[in-house]
Request: fold
Amino acid sequence: MKRKCLALFLVAMMSCWMWTALPFSAVLAEEESDLMSEVLAELSLSREQVRFTDEGIERTYGTDPLRLPFFNQQLKNPLATPAFLESNASYIATRQGSMRDLLWLSAFRLGYTVSSYPQYEPVLDHRLVESQPLLYAISDLHTFCQEPLDSYSFALLKKKLEGIPLVAQTELARILYASLFFKEQRDKAFSAFSQEELMTVFRNPAKTLVQGYDPLSHRILKEANFALLYFASIQLGKTLDKSVAELKKQGFPPDWDLEWKTPMGRIILKGSENHTHSAKEVLLSVDSGGDDSYSSSVGATASWFNPVSIHIDVAGNDRYLQSEDDVYSQGAGILGMGVLMDLQGDDYYEAVQYAQGFGCFGVGLLVDDTGDDHYNCVSFSQGAGIYGIGYLIDREGEDKYDVYSFSQGFGYVKGFGCLLDMKGNDRYVANNENVDGSNPQSSDHNTSFCQGAGFGRRADLSEGNSMSGGFGLLIDMEGNDYYSCGVFGQGTGYWAGTGLLYDAKGDDEYKGVWYVQGGAAHFAIAALIDKEGNDRYDALLNMAQGAGHDVSLGFLIDSLGNDHYISPNLALGGGNDNGMGFFVDGAGDDVYETRGPGRINLGKANYSKHLWGSWRDKEYSLGIFIDRGGKDTYPEDRGKNDTKWNYFQDGAPKSMGAGIDAETGKLPGFVAP
Reply:
C-alpha cells in the first residue's frame, strides 16, 4: 500500500512538473506585458489616473448644450478614445452601402436618438397606386402643397408618363412619397421661424463661421427640432437605398424623356444620350447615360421651397461645374436634403463652396460608385457638416480631392462631416501653396481644417457665445494615398471638436504644418490611425503626430509597416498646457527624425510658467511614446531600441512624459494583437 501511494505521488508530481514545464513558453506569450501600463509606470501612473477630471473640464471651458454627447466622456477616458474613434470608422466603412445606417449613426453622434429600430419605421407603400403609381404620386404632391392638378394637367401628365415601365414608376413614386414625408417633417422642425428668417439663413449658411457671430443662426440651432429633421432624412435615405438598388437591377429606361414642374421642384427624366443640364429648383432627376454636363444646383436644395433635391446619373463620364459661390450644388442640403448619386464613369466635380456632400441645417450626400474621379472645390465641401450632416462617398477608383479649407471630412458646430473612399490610390490636397497670409500660427501657410477635422467657435475671449465643435472624419480603406494640408488637418480638432483620419491599408504619405497628424488644440480630440503599410509622416512647425494642447487629446497610431517620421516640436507623443499626446507604432523598422535637438517630443510634455500656481496645476500635461518591434532609428539626443525613458518638468509636478521601445508587448485599445 505504501509503495502504491508513493508511486501515485510520484506520478502526480511528474504530471504537475510536466504541465508546468511543457507549456511554459506559451504561458509567457499569453502574459505579455501591457506596454501602456509599463510606460505609465515610468511616471508612477496607473491607467485610471490618465484622465481629465470633471472639475478640470467644467472649470476650464464650462458646459455647453451644443457639445456632442461623447466628448466629455472621452476626455475623462483617454485610453479608450482610440477604440471609440475606430469603431465609428469601422461602422461607416462596413455600412457604406446604406444611407439609412450612415445617417442614423451621424444623428446619434450629434445627440439625436432617432430610428433606433428599423422595424418600427414608417412604411409609405400604402400610398402607392398599383396601376399608375408615378401619376398619382405627383398628383398627391401637388395636392399636399395646396396646388392640386386640374383635369387638363392631370390628363397631360398621364400622357407624358406613358411608356415608362411600371417598375421604374413604382420606385420613383416611392422616392417622391418619401420626399413628401421629409418636407412635412422638415416644416415641423423649423415651424418656430418665419420664412423670411429661414431664407435669410439659407442665403448665408456659414455666416457665424466666416463673418462672425450670427444670433439668428444660433437661435435656430438651439430651437429647431433636429430630431424630426434627421428622422425624416433617415426614411428618405432608406427609400433611396431600396429604390435605386431595384432600378439598377431592372435597368433604367434608355429613352425616357420627361420634365414636370411641381411645387417642390422639377422632375426631370432623361435617356442615355449626352445632355446638358442647367435646371434650377429640381426635386428629382434621373439621367440614364451619356457624357453629361451639369451646372446649377444639381442634387442640391436651391431654396426653402425646394426642400429635397435628388439626382441620379446612371453612366457616362460626366462634368459637374458650378462657378457661382451662392449656388449650392453636387449633393448639398441646406434647410433640406440634397443627394447626388453617380453610378458609373470617370467624373469631374467642380464648385466654389457648399457642395460635394455638404449639410447645413440639413443633410447633403454625394455618392460616386465607380471611376477615376476628380473633386475640386474651395471650401465647405467634400463631406462637411455645419449644423448638419455631409457625406462624400467614393466607392472605387483612383481619385483626386482638391480644396482649400473646411472640407474633406469637416464637422463644425453640431455638424457631422465624412469623406469615405473605399478603394484606389488617392490624392487629398488642402492647398497650402497659394497662401492668403491670414493664418494666426504662420502667415506663410493656409488654415485648412481638412482631412478629418472638428471645429468649434471659441468666444470666451470675446463676446462669450462659444459653440462646441462637431465631428469630422476622413476614412480611406485601401490604396497608396497622399495627404497634404496647411495648419489644422489630418486628424485635428479645436474647441470641443473631434477629428479623425483613418487609413486602413496602403503605403501612404502625410504632409502638414501645425496641429496635424493627430494634433489637437484648445479643448479638442484628434487622431490619425493608420492600420497597415510603409508610411511617411512629415510635419513642419509644431504640435503634430500625436500631440495635445490645452485640455485636449491627440493620437497618432500606426499599427504595421516600416515607417518614417519627420517631426517638429511637440510631436511624437507630446503634451502641452494640460494636453495629452499619445504616439503608438505597433510594428516595423521605423525612422524618427526631429527638426532640431531638444524638442518636446518622443514622450515629453510642457506646462507654461504663466499657468503655474493656478487651479490648472491639478490637471496633467502628458506625453506618451511607444514603439513595439523592429530595429528603429532615433535622433542622437533621445530614444533608443529596447529602452525606457521618462521626463519630469522641473517646477511642474504634473507635467511629464515617458517612452518605451520594446520588442514585444500588448497594446490593448490601440493596436490589435
About this structure: The first strand starts at residue 258 and ends at 262.
